[in-house]
Amino acid sequence: MNGLLLILLAAVILGGAYLVYGRYLAKKWGIDPKAKTPAYEYEDGVDYVPADTGVVFGHQFASIAGAGPINGPIQAAMFGWLPVLLWILLGGIFFGAVQDFAAMYASVKNKGRSIGYIIEVYIGKLGKRLFLLFTWLFSILVVAAFADIVAGTFNGFNAETGDKITANASVATTSLLFIAAAVGLGFFLKYAKKNKWVNTVVAIALLVVCVAIGIFFPIYVKQSSWLLFVYAYVIVACVTPVWALLQPRDYLNSFLLIAMMIAAFLGIIIYNPSMNLPVFTSFKLTSATGTVSYLFPTLFVTIACGAVSGFHALVSSGTASKQIKNEKSMLPVSFGGMLLESFLAITALIAVGFVATSEGIPAGTPPQLFASAISTFLTKLGLPESVTFTLITLAISAFALTSLDSVARVGRIAFQEFFTDDTVAKDKMNPLQRLLVNKYFATVLTLVLCYVLSRVGYANIWPLFGSANQLLSALALIACAVFLKKTKRQGFMLWAPMLIMLGVTFTALILKMAELLKSFGTAATAGNILQFVFAVLLLILGVIVAFEGIRKLLDKKAMA
């Protein structure tokens, strides 16, 4: 097997899935192009902001992708390339794309509200409150993992030798410029009101200028300092109106990210890299530290983004659904965005397959391995490897930083909603409740916990993040299935993914808890203890919410 055959196979299968299965779902559930969407009905200039399909797609794709479709497949490659390939394709089509479309569809049909609201309406208030708590804990895990990844891509110095890392320093400069450019672009999009072609030209021009300055003026700062900066930025991004930062930065980044994917695709086509990974290794693997990993459930929680990810449901129902101008846009934005992410995951698999040797996968973070492979492919096009390595690293960093924007906002909103009582007016709340629902307090508290956990390092957080992420997917699928049944729409296509993900995630969480308990004998660190507490809480909350949802799903009287 070679990279060329794999990438062409993936393109045909994923493209066919969109044209056939995606359109089938849209027809079964019903799309009304004439319906007034929540973006218009509840337009507030902060969260509900109508946007062109391309802008919303850019936000959706940049938010859901993050570093996940690169990290997951590369880490899971220890099982061989065939299990990874099958899970990405089957999971992406029948699990992930279905979930994303269902979550966005349910949200748009319910005033652009989140999955938590869907659970409250169709399952009950208890289910909603527990789901909001689960979402908050999950958001902390995501921000902790991705903040560490972003800070690592900015790190200007080698941790062991102290040598300067020019590529990372250039990425840091460009990313800072991106933030400033996004604010300017946000005001331009809001007040200039030009057509989409003018907006596109302006965005690409800003992108080119930022990249050029970043390459020539790198900023060398160590990772720990960048980590503090990332959190300071996320605090601001969490409370800023979406039109001023989140929406334009995602739009700006989408050009870079899609350009990276096109370059990777062309590089693979021209270079035709070999797959040096074995087809399959083993159902059970033991690491050098003695950690045991089983194909089930490890593969299915390690590859989350790229196959199925609960975080996508939060983005689809939490932010993107509030920007949809026409219901017709839901299919390309949600279903199409997920399949494009699966395609990115396949390129990551090909990249790690190329850099692998007879001794296994070489040392280095997944983004470094990915950037190294793709930049090598692009030398066939006559492009300098040093420049392409910088650009690809920048794109990965942009993925992760964009996800931080979205998930931190979702976590903040979940915390506020958990303590909000709809029967009590804001001016009638007691001082403690007013504090807890305050967006600034909710943001700072959430991110302080994220910072403590991120000190553990993304590699240690990733298994727990993956388990929580996939359990969130199962809960989102349950909520959407109940919604579809309650509204007399067919939802049988959600049942198998829902039950399979419940089995995967409960198994993974129990194994992770056992591993953490075992580690307490030798390394009872604050990070390990916090991870264990999170694992226990996530398992308990997941079981209760799943039980409530399935009970409602099977209750014929409740569906009448």
Structural account:
By secondary structure, this protein is mainly α. It has a single domain (3-22, 35-554), classed as Up-down Bundle (Amino acid/polyamine transporter I). It has 21 helices and two strands. Strands 1-2 form a two-stranded antiparallel ribbon. α8 packs across α16, α10 packs across α16 and α13 crosses α19. The protein is globular and about 60 Å long. The chain starts with a helix and ends in a 6-residue tail after the last helix. The mean pLDDT is 87.
Give the key terms:
single chain, 560 residues, mainly alpha, Amino acid/polyamine transporter I, two-stranded antiparallel sheet
CATH architecture: Up-down Bundle
Q: Give the quaternary arrangement of the chains.
A: single chain
Mean pLDDT: 87
Approximately how much helix is present in the residues?
Answer: over 70%
CATH fold naming: Amino acid/polyamine transporter I
Overall geometry comes to: globular
Which CATH class is shown?
Mainly Alpha
Beta content comes to under 5%
Please tell me how large the radius of gyration is: 22 Å
